[in-house]
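To close the chapter, one final illustration. This time we ask the reader to focus less on the individual chains and more on the assembly as a whole: which components sit near each other, and how the overall shape emerges from the parts.
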Amino acid sequence: MATQRKGIEVSIAMADAVAQANVDVIAAYPITPQTHIVEHLSEIVANGELDAEYVPVESEHSAMSVCCGSSAVGARTFTSTSSQGLALMAEIFYIAASMRLPMVMALANRSLSGPLSIWNDHTDTMMVRDAGWIHIFVENGQECYDNVFCGFRISEDPDIMLPLAINLDGFILTHMIEPVIYEDNETIRKYLPDVRMKNALHPDNPVSMGCFAMPEIYTEAQMSREHGVRNSYPTIVKAWQEWGDLTGRYYKPVETYRADDADYCIVTMGSYGETAMEVVDALREEGEKVGVVKIRLWRPFPFDDFRKAVLGKKSLIVIDRAISFGGPGGPVATELRSALYGKPGAPTIVNYVAGLAGRDVSRNDFKNIILEGKAKAEKGETDGFTLYGLRG
Amino acid sequence: MLEIRLHGRGGQGAVTSAELIAIAAINKGNFAQAFPSFGPERRGAPVVAFCRVDDRKINIRAKVYKPDVVIVLDPGLLSLLDPTEGMGEGGILILNTRKKPEEITQVSGRNIKVVTVDANKIATEELGRPIVNTTMLGGFVRATGLLGIEDIKEPLLERFGKKLGERNLKAMERAYHEVSIGE
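The assembled structure is written out below.
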């Protein structure tokens, strides 16, 4: 088994992974900060290095429509988008999940307009939280690369058959050059055999997909989707476990860092988890009993793993990257509060919204958030949320 | 960990300089990051790029605020910004300028090593135009000792191809030899 360690832009590594996954169809429309991923894939296909259809559609709505068609005939399907592109896709995004169409999307997270902004936060992905896709968050280039293979494996599993989004922070990851370990194609083939979808459209075996539903059946159809997403959990865990056994890189639905004996934990999703670890190391040196809890699997939400990681702690300081205007707090904190409500030993939650639209959150900012959050928790100030770094 | 900030103008290749340093370091088995200051790319406007190099995995997803090394690709930027912003004692400032280190009054009285090189002249002579991103890497190698010319050679040739790559390599080597290093 040969691996190769490269210094490479994360977008390019992700595109290379998609090619190594031997996809059949890529349909995408360029949008910052996702563009480099599909640009590189179009080069790979144009150079004849990958036998795939690259469909340069005229909009994201069409991109997702092409993806639905190709997945329905059993083709391994990839797309990528961000922000306004995802918004334009939203109609078909929901339909892909309801029709149980496996595909992988690299969702390079970016703020939504307005005001118009191209930079990173999580407002785009929160818009489609309830669509019935599987959502994974990654925090570095290696995780982007690895989860392309895990993503296809999970999405196409006959027991799951659901579209899957890999959420990666726009710019922070997409435009970063860093080391990524590439696996050889033999290892990839072993882990991810060519796709064989059951129920694919075929003239010899006619089926109907995407039917109209009367009130008599809509509720049951929705329950079927709920079962589909919720029951995907063990398969996701198994797919990550097997990837770890092959490569030594293991992923879990909830990951912790120095959290076992911590009184206070900072909770993050995505690339902020890395800076949080660095800052927790520094605060531990100063005697603060703090740790990090990282939500990697956002849908299906890993209730048991999350509770196991945090019950008994004094408080959680949750960083959100999106606002729910007029609501109870950021979307992550709101869900975590709900997951803990009424549970014995539940920590209180102090919620910060930070890093909106690419505003940098430095090590010093993380330190402030943790210490200020801890002080708020001690004073019982745990309602609502604080917009960190707000000026004026 | 060594933290590097590069100042240039859109189109001068500051991001490429950062990339080549990072890739050379990674190829040597180190860990590194290179990234632009994300924004709309406008030719001629002041831009910033960042780079980190360490012998362990880097866990920081934020800009560089306290650079150990600053590289300024465009002489005109010195009157627009303070290249030493955030730089502590013992920092290294590498400038593309015709001036000598002792003429750089912005750092007078501070413990900052100033390294100057007339990269516009070298790049114009070797490449036919003053695109100084690779030339300035010669100054970087000489000033920091972090990497050797040989380490940058491979990613540079891969990036620019053999013909253009070798001209860039020559510009880098000339800069390495022609720098002026302050006291």
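Residues 3-247 of chain A form a domain with the Rossmann fold fold (CATH 3.40.50.970). Chain A has a mean pLDDT of 97. With these observations in hand, you are ready for the problems at the end of the chapter.
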